[in-house]
Design brief:
Blueprint: H1 9-17, E1 21-22, E2 35-38, E3 42-44, E4 48-55, E5 58-59, E6 67-73, E7 78-81, E8 95-98, E9 103-111, E10 114-119, H2 120-130, H3 133-144, E11 151-167, E12 185-189, E13 200-208, E14 217-222, E15 227-232, E16 238-243, E17 247-258, E18 274-285, H4 289-295
Parallel strand pairs: 1-10, 3-11, 11-18
Antiparallel strand pairs: 2-4, 4-5, 4-8, 6-7, 6-9, 9-11, 10-11, 12-13, 13-16, 14-15, 14-17, 17-18
Helix pairs in contact: 2-3
Length: about 300
């Protein structure tokens, strides 16, 4: 996850013909990041894994998300799907998998690229939130200069991942939490965050097909405690996140760029003003047995 209006019959037909999803004419960037949320952080071998896609804790209907690619990876296998199978009892809100191997189950989704038409004001606020100060100035200046009068067209590319622990008595679990998935935009942990010790630093590397990974910021939110960490990326696209407390963590990264003349900014030809690539990662850091004893 470009200087014209998306309105008009001709452009609408062109967008639909290329398979890119068109949002409502004056949408807002209310859904700045969406996260894969497993119902349980740890499941038993053979148990069903239920997975929702949420924005601000509101589950989205899978059928309306425009899923381009969905997968479940274990230490030995990867199952790929072009569409999402939802649990019958979920009302279309939860995807269903079966945990077939012990260790870490890595679940991922790529959404089809889409065009959002948003107000220049809301996009400027988005840029201020998701970029480091070193990069946001020029972009906000372009928006506030009147170059994008009133609204801007934003080409959004979104990828999400979630980690689930699969326990089996007497087994030696294998973790593939650090494996690279090759998604269009990705946050890759360089150690398994589901077994990290509190007080440790979690190293992650970010990838995107548009500029930004080497001068961006990973926003890490512990939704259990409310803690928010802004971890800048370095020249090797590496960010360091201190993990001080247990809980459910949501990581997000956004690469933002001005689209080259008439292009979508990442090699795609559909017109937009800006390109945003968004990656998210969710996992739960458990409380260690020793910490539970101290708490009691």
């Amino acid at each position: 996850m470009q200087t014209s209006d998306l309105c008009g019959t001709w452009l609408l037909q062109r967008v639909l013909a290329t398979g890119i999803l068109l949002s409502a004419a004056t949408a807002t960037l209310g859904q700045e990041a969406r996260f894969l949320e497993p119902a349980d952080a740890t499941v038993a071998l053979g148990e069903r894994v239920s997975l929702a896609f949420v924005a601000t804790d509101v589950a989205q209907e899978w059928a309306g998300l425009g899923v381009a690619y969905f997968f479940a990876r274990t230490a030995w296998t990867q199952e790929n799907r072009d569409t999402v199978s939802v649990a019958a009892d979920s009302g279309g809100l939860a995807a269903a998998w079966v945990a077939g191997e012990p260790g870490v189950l890595l679940l991922g989704v790529d959404l089809a690229a889409r065009i959002d038409t948003v107000s220049a004001e809301s996009f400027a606020a988005f840029v201020r939130r998701v970029l480091p100060e070193s990069r946001r100035g020029d972009f906000v200046g372009l928006l506030e200069s009147g170059r994008a009068e009133g609204t801007v067209a934003v080409r959004r590319v979104e990828s999400g991942k979630a980690l689930v622990r699969v326990e089996a008595g007497g087994s030696d679990p294998v973790s593939i939490a650090t494996s690279k998935t090759g998604q269009a935009v990705e946050i890759r942990p360089l150690m398994d965050p589901t077994v990290i010790e509190l007080g440790s630093d979690l190293a992650v590397r970010v990838y995107s097909r548009v500029p930004g990974p080497s001068d961006g910021v990973v926003i890490a939110t512990n939704t259990t405690t409310g803690e928010v960490v802004r971890a800048p990326t370095n020249e090797t696209s590496l960010a360091i996140i201190p993990i001080e407390r247990a809980g459910k963590w949501r990581l997000e990264f956004h690469a933002v760029d001005v689209a080259a003349a008439g292009l979508g900014g990442d090699g795609e030809g559909e017109h937009a003003d800006w390109i945003v690539h968004t990656a998210t990662l969710t996992f739960v850091v458990p409380v260690a047995a020793s910490d539970e004893e101290v708490a009691r």
